[in-house]
Structures are given as C-alpha cells and as structure tokens.
Specification:
The complex is a heterodimer of chains A (about 800) and B (about 100). Chain A is mainly α and about 800 residues long. Chain A is about 75% helix and about 5% strand. Chain A contains 30 helices and six strands. Chain A has a two-stranded antiparallel sheet. Chain A has a two-stranded antiparallel sheet with strand order 3-4. In chain A, helix 6 runs antiparallel to helix 11, helix 15 packs antiparallel against helix 17 and helix 15 runs antiparallel to helix 23. Chain A is elongated and about 155 Å long. In chain B, helix 1 packs antiparallel against helix 2 and helix 2 packs antiparallel against helix 3. Chain B is elongated. Classes of the chains: A mainly alpha (about 800), B mainly alpha (about 100). At the A-B interface, helix 29 and helix 30 of A face helix 1 and helix 2 of B.
Chain lengths: ~800, ~100
C-alpha cells in the first residue's frame, strides 16, 4: 500500500472537522437542535474515525510486513515558508505513535460527540437557545480539527499552532456557560495558566530554531544528536541557568508547555476549575485528549531532552501524581474528584516519561483516555440524570436508577485502579500501563547503578571489538521483533528493563561514533531518587481508594437525597457511548505493540526503558514480580478500605474528617494553591500595578504635566498674543487701511464726465490763478513779448 | 486796431463756452461739440501767439494744424464710441452709461 494514501487519509480526517466547524458556524442556528449535533457527529468525527480506522488497519498490516519504517521515511514534507535561513516544512508525521494517537482521538471523540447530542438535548440554554446549541458543536468540531492536526504535525511550529488552537477551544468550551461568572472565570484561568506554560514552550521553540536551525521533529533530533557528538551548537554554549546547560533549558522549556497543557504541578490549578464546562467537554478535552497533548509533546521531543531535563520532568510528574491523588480523596463534587484523578494519572504519564518509560507512558495515555473518557461520560450521565446535581453527598443508591452507568463506571474504576490478576494476562488497561511505569521507575531507582556499570563495561567491550564507525548503540537493538509479538507480553515476557537504543540505520543517516553511546549516557544519567518511586507506588494504593469512594458514594448505599433519587434517569443515547468505551477499556491494551513499534521507528532516544526488552539482572525480575502483586493488589486494598469507610453512609467519613483535622483542611483547600497564587500573582499584580500607578502619577505624569502646562502657556501666548494680535493685526491692518483708502478714493470717482471736467477746470483755474499770483516772471515775459507786437 | 488781446479774448470765450458745454450737456454729441470748442479755442491761441509773438516762424500754425488733425481723429473715434453706446443702450445720455461702475 502506498504510504501517501495514508497521509491523504489522515489529512482528510483533519480537514473534515474544520468543514463541520465552518458549516456549523455559518448555518448552525438554521440547522437547529438535533441536526447541528448530528452534523458534528458525522462530518466532525465520523469521517475522521473512518480515516483513522482505515489507516490503523493498513498500518498494522505494514508493521507485519516490516515496511512501516519505509513508509515513515517516505512521508512527504512540503516547503511552507522560510524563517530566516530555516525552512519550515509542513507534512504528516506518519509513524506508529501518530496512528495510535490519531485513532484514539478519533474514536473517543466520536463517541463523546455522540454522547453530546444526548447530553445537550435536555439542556436549556438560557441565553440564546438555538445559536448556543450549534455553537457547542461548532467548538467541538474545531477542537477535533485542532487535536487531530496536533497529532499529525511533523513540525514543531505546526505542533505549536495546533497546540494553541486546542487551548483556544478549551477556553471557548470551558466558558460555554459564559453567562455564569464562575465559568467565564474558569475559562480565563485556564487560558492564562496555559500562557505561562506556553511561554516556556516558546523559549524552547526559539532555542530549537536558533541552535538546531530546523523546526522539523526528525531533523531537530538528528541535529541535536550531531551537536551532542560534536560538542557544537547548543552543546557548545557555556551558558547555564540554575546549573542547567542550554540544552537542558531547551528541554525544560518545551516541557513547560507540557506542564501547562497537561496541568502539571505547579500549573495544575486550571484543570479542576475547567470542570465548569459541559461534561462532554470535560471528558473529551480535559481528560482524554487535550490534556494528554502535553505527554504527547514530551514523547515527540523526547530526543531533545537531556538527562537533566528528564530528571526535571520526572520530578514534576512525581509531585503531581502524588499531591493530586491526595486531593482527590476529599473532593465531594463528582467531576472535581475525576479531575484530580486525571491530574494524578497525567502525573503518572509525565513521571513515566521522565523515567524513560516512553512506551509505558504513552500506553498509559491511551488506556487512560479510554477509561477516563468513560468515567467522565458516566458522571455526565449522572449529572444530567440528577438535574445538574454534582455533589456526591446528595447522591447514593443510583445503581437502581442507572444500572448501565453504574456498572460501566465500575469498569472504569477497575481500570484506573490498575486491577488485574498478577501472573496472568488478565487485567484492565491501567494494570499493564501503570505497572510498567512503576517497574521502570523501580529499575531507575534501585537497579540503575548496577546496570550502568554492567552496561558500560559491556559497551566498552563492544567498542574494543567493533570497527571504528560501527554504531555503538546497535548491539541491543535486536529486540524490535519481540516488541511486536503481543499485546500482553508486559506480564508474559516478564519484568525486564532495557535501554532501547535504536539502530541508527532506521533513520537512514550516518551516526557519529559514540553518539548517545551507552558509555557516555551512563556517565550522565543518574539513578532516580528513591522517594520518587515510593511516592508513585503509594499513589497506586491511593487511586483505587478515591475512585471506589467516588463510585460508592454515587451509586451504592442508600439514597441520601430523596428528591435527587426520585427524578434520576438515564437515556440510551448517552449510555451507548459508555458501553462502547467500556469495551474499549479492555481493547486498549492492544495498542501497546503499536506504541512499542513507535519507540523503535521514531525515537533514537538516549533513554527508553521498557519491560519487554533485554533482561539485565535477576534482581529486577524478582522485584518486578513483587511489584506486579503490589499494583494488582493495590486495587483490593483500596477497594476494601473505601468500602469499609463509606459502606454505612457518610458518618465514618465525617468522624475521620474530624480526626484528620488540619490535614483534611489542607487537602480540601488543595494545599492552598489558589489562595497562594491569588496572594502572590493576582494580589502581587495589583500591588505592582499600584506601584506603577504611583510612579506614573508622581514621576512620569509630573514631568508630563509640567511639559503640558508649559506647552499650554506657550500656546496661549503664541496663539492669543503673537498670532491674534501680532500676525493677524498686520494682516487686518493692511486690509483695513486699503479699505479705508479705497473708500476715500472712491468718493470723487463718480463716473460722471461733467464732474471730471469741472474738477479739471477747477484745477486748471487754480493753477492759472497761482501762476498769475506767484509766477510773476513768466507773466512779465509774456507781457514783454506781447507788448512790442501791439505797438 | 485789433491786437493780440482780442484774439485771446475770443479764444477765452470759446474755451469757456466749450468748458461750459462739457459740464452741462448730458448728450454725448453735445459734449463732443464742447470738446471741439475747447480745441478750437486752443487753435486760436496758437495761431494768435504765432502771429504776434513769433512773426516769420510757423511753429504755432503747424501745431494748430496738428491739433486739427488730432481733433478730426478724436472726433471720428468718439463718434464711433457714441454709435456703439447708442446701439447698446438706445441712448447717448452719458449718465446712463454706468455699466462699468463698481
């Protein structure tokens, strides 16, 4: 099969929701209540789902035929623009990770769109009934476009553009009930918190642009490796910040974007508030897809991460997963409880990424997307059925009214808790993925030093034997075939950790000797602090507890609010997606080989650890068996404890709450993050503004006021005196004078001849008289001349 | 014996008559006639002075001839103007020719 067909299919799937958005924006209100929704379902996500299915089937076939890497290599890049000397290309990143993510997004989004039609049907839009209904689906379609675009982007720049677009859609959909103040506040909070993260992302992007001279993901990774080997470019800089090299800053900067979008500590504050949006939005954007974009980003730029940057990633992930899980225990709002559980699970993914569990983290992303979407849709069903009651203390006993919701929700609880039977291949998605993250964390925390010594030694031997130029990283790469074998070989293949360093041949480029070679890496990668592993393990026990608590408070026990209970109902339009996603939760485990393939096809990373690789110590095998029981058993422990507390209503919980006192208060106030942020940032901002205002009023304005009044005075002088009296005086004087003169001159000029004649005669007479009186000389001469003639 | 004084007296009378005619007439032709009288009084003076003050010399007489020629030309021109005025205004009353007055 031609690879370009897949690229076209993927592009078609990206463009189709945009078309749906276009239609709904312009003709949505005219399409009316159910039609607009179905348009979004069919055009907005139906078409992408078909495309995704087509590509997925074809791709699995290609992997089996071992020509997937070839298709990846042949993917077309179109030249889009030049940024300085750096060409920006646009294209579809065609690899297993894209295919897996694309299918996951399209599949889950399709069923959530479907669910939304049912959810929004019973919605009374108090502002503008028609247009708001279609607006919701328009935004959902736009989100579909952005998210799918993000997944297929081959360039960091386009990834960033779609990244911002999903942020915009998130903002629009959180603020869907914009007439309610808390919703619009939550939307603004989400947007601004994301800006903080995206600022870091931009810094990372600029460093990539400036030092690696490319924005293409693959080329950037290749350049990064090249510069690492040569010690030039970004590695040639001696600049440090907080003890981080420039390369580390680049990785941390890019990760900051992920921190914002994936709501990692300390930028997690927006996600719980984002629950102000309609529940399908929470399921789609704030649980299954958009918030996991951060993990996806880290996966994509994994090759640009230095060991220091990865350690930072792991630390942030670890803090998030633990702190957020504790908050989830005390939440009473069903959606908030799920939101904190999402935060905790996102923490697991980020933590996994930081540990090097690239495959496991992405695997957890996929499985989490399925069960968390289902849990949120279940909560949406509950909220809708209970007439927008979200407080679990008013629920209880809903299993009789909503059996389908109750049991699908329970499947979700099992999945997120990582329920499974150790030693067998039976278990739900979360069992395999979380188990693998913990195994890798364990390997990094306890076995790493031994492993490092061992491998460094072996690597040295290989170096000695191999010809110069032979790839030093290739010797352990023969595990690719094994990773393709089966979905569940996490447990079947036993606990093994491996450094998967790809054969550079897969990237069709010559690799400098020693590039990311084991010896050099092992010198740099430290083992994980042990507390991180313990925190992650503890949280694995906390998760089943709060999830069971949430489920039990909602569905089991006795109804606590008769009014809510009496009117509760569920509708088929909404529980069909629940059932589909519940099945998906079981099927999601089959995504693992696809992601494992992506790790070889797309990641020549310095550090990718997976459980199904090369066995290196017997100790880890034993430890991993123990771990598996730990994770599998965590569910039982959490479940029993939760039921023990909540079986008889809320009285036991109330007693515990009083006993816990300050700890409970700390958790209930979410460690006072909102308060501290309010104090530091909001109040700080206001204080800064006040200081600025003071400076402005008393210094800047003062100068300006002096200048202004001086100008005013000068203007008054020049305008009123100089101009009005001086210049105008001259001009007016000239005019007045000429007017006066002409008036005077005009009088005698009557135009009557006789007057002129009279005047001339008068003048002549006067002249003669004057001559006769004073001009005696001439008169005499005349007389003298005349006289002789007379005589 | 008729002397220079008599000629000058006639000329003065002619001049005064002409001047008076120019001042009092509203008819353009009348004014022209007044102008002719004034010119001819000047001619009388010129010839008289020539005869009595510079005998044997022809300066005054030639000047008088020159004035006559000029007067003829002037009359032709002025009558032309009068005809045009009459054509436009159907009258030769100079007081009614006020079109060019501001």
């Amino acid at each position: 099969m031609n690879g370009h067909t897949y690229e076209i299919a993927l592009t078609l799937g990206v463009v189709s929701p945009l078309l749906s958005f276009w239609i709904l924006v312009f003709w949505g209100p005219r399409l009316g209540k159910p039609t607009a929704g179905w348009t979004a379902v069919v055009l907005g996500m139906g078409v992408p789902l078909l495309c995704a299915t087509y590509v997925l089937v074809g791709w699995l076939d290609a992997i089996n035929n071992h020509n997937a890497a070839e298709l990846t290599a042949k993917a077309v890049r179109y030249h889009w623009a030049d940024l300085g000397a750096v060409p920006v290309t646009i294209g579809v990143k065609l690899d297993s990770l894209t295919v897996a993510m694309y299918f996951m997004v399209a599949f889950i989004a399709f069923w959530i769109f479907f669910f939304s039609v049912g959810y929004m049907a019973g919605h009374s839009d108090e502002v503008d009934h028609q247009s708001k209904y279609s607006r919701f689906f328009a935004y959902l379609s736009l989100f579909g476009f952005s998210m799918l675009g993000l997944v297929v982007s081959s360039s960091l720049l386009f990834l960033f553009i779609f990244w911002e677009l999903v942020g915009l859609c998130s903002y629009l959909l959180i603020g869907y009930y914009f007439d309610r103040p808390y919703a619009s506040r939550a939307a603004i909070k989400a947007f601004i918190t994301n800006r903080v993260g995206d600022f870091g992302f931009l810094i990372g992007l600029m460093l990539v642009y400036f030092h690696l001279q490319t924005l293409d993901l693959d080329q950037a990774a290749a350049k990064f490796a090249e510069q690492y080997a040569a010690g030039t470019g970004i590695f040639g800089s001696s600049y440090t910040l907080f003890g981080w090299s420039l390369a580390t800053i680049m990785g941390v900067g890019l990760f900051c974007g992920a921190m914002g979008k994936s709501a990692q500590f300390p930028l997690h504050v927006w996600l719980p508030d984002a629950m102000a949006g309609p529940t399908p939005v929470s399921a789609l954007i704030h649980a299954a897809t958009m918030v996991t974009a951060g993990v996806y980003l880290v996966a994509r730029v994994f090759r640009l991460m230095t060991p220091d940057a990865l350690m930072f990633v792991a630390t942030i992930g670890c803090l998030t997963l633990f702190l957020m899980a504790l908050i989830a225990i005390v939440q009473t709002d069903i959606k908030k409880c799920l939101a904190y559980s999402t935060l905790s699970q996102l923490g697991y993914m980020i933590f996994g990424m930081g540990c090097g569990a690239w495959i496991a983290a992405l695997f957890h992303l996929i499985t989490h997307a399925f069960f968390k979407a289902m849990l949120f849709l279940g909560s949406g069903q509950v909220i809708e059925g209970c007439h927008h009651e979200q407080d679990m203390r008013h629920m209880g006993g809903l299993r009789t009214k909503m059996p389908v919701t109750c049991w699908t929700f329970f499947v979700g609880v099992l999945a997120i808790s990582g329920a499974g039977i150790a030693g067998t291949q039976m278990g739900l998605g979360g069992f395999f993925s979380k188990d693998e993250i913990l195994a890798v964390a364990y390997a990094r925390a306890f076995e790493w030093d031994d492993y490092r010594k061992h491998e460094a030694h072996e690597s040295h031997d290989v170096h000695a034997q191999s010809e110069p130029g032979a790839p030093a990283t290739g010797q352990l790469a023969g595990t690719k075939g094994r990773r393709d074998e089966g979905a569940c070989d996490t447990t079947a293949a036993g606990p093994r950790a491996i450094l998967v360093s790809d054969p550079p041949a897969a990237h069709a480029r010559p690799v400098p000797h020693g590039e990311f070679g084991k010896a050099s890496i092992f010198k740099r990668i430290q083992s994980l602090p042990k507390w991180m592993f313990y925190l992650a393990l503890c949280t694995a026990y906390v998760t089943p507890f709060y999830m069971t608590r949430c489920w039990w408070m909602t569905f089991m026990g006795k109804p606590r609010d008769e009014h809510v209970h009496r009117h509760a109902h569920e509708s088929p339009l909404m529980y069909i997606p629940l059932v589909v996603l519940a099945v998906g939760t079981f099927v999601a485990v089959y995504f693992r080989p696809l992601i494992a393939d992506a790790s070889t096809a797309a990641t020549a990373a310095p550090l990718v650890l997976a459980t199904d690789g090369h066995v290196h110590t017997a100790a880890l095998t034993a430890a991993h068996d123990w771990l598996k029981f730990g994770v599998g058993g965590a569910f039982i422990v959490g479940f029993i404890v939760a039921i023990a507390i909540y079986a008889r209503g809320l009285s036991t919980a109330e007693r515990l709450k009083r006993a816990a006192g300050p700890i409970h208060a700390l958790l209930e106030h979410k460690y006072f993050f909102d308060e501290v942020y309010d104090l530091v940032w909001v109040k700080g901002c206001i204080l800064l503004a006040k200081v600025c205002r003071f400076i402005d009023t008393w210094f800047v304005d003062l100068i300006f006021n002096i200048l202004a009044s001086a100008t005013e005075r000068f203007a008054a002088f020049s305008g009123l005196i100089l101009d009005n009296q001086g210049v105008d005086g001259i001009v007016n004087g000239v005019a007045d004078t000429s007017l006066m003169v002409s008036d005077a001159v005009r009088g005698p000029q009557t135009g009557r001849i006789r007057h002129y004649v009279l005047f001339a005669a008068g003048v002549g007479t006067v002249a003669i008289v004057l001559v006769l009186l004073y001009g005696s000389g001439s008169t005499e001469s005349v007389a003298a001349v005349a006289t002789p003639a007379i005589h | 014996m008729i002397g220079l004084t008599h000629y000058l007296f006639v000329a003065a009378v002619l001049f005064a008559s002409g001047l008076f005619t120019m001042m009092t007439k509203r008819n353009a032709i009348g004014i022209l006639i007044g102008v002719e009288l004034v010119l001819n009084s000047a001619n009388v003076n010129l010839v008289a002075f020539d005869r009595y003050l510079g005998p044997g010399r022809l300066d005054g007489q030639i000047t008088a001839l020159f004035v006559i020629v000029l007067a003829a030309a002037e009359a032709a021109l002025a009558v032309g103007i009068c005809i045009n005025v009459y054509k436009n205004l159907s009258t030769v009353d100079v007081d009614s020719a006020t079109q060019l007055q501001g």
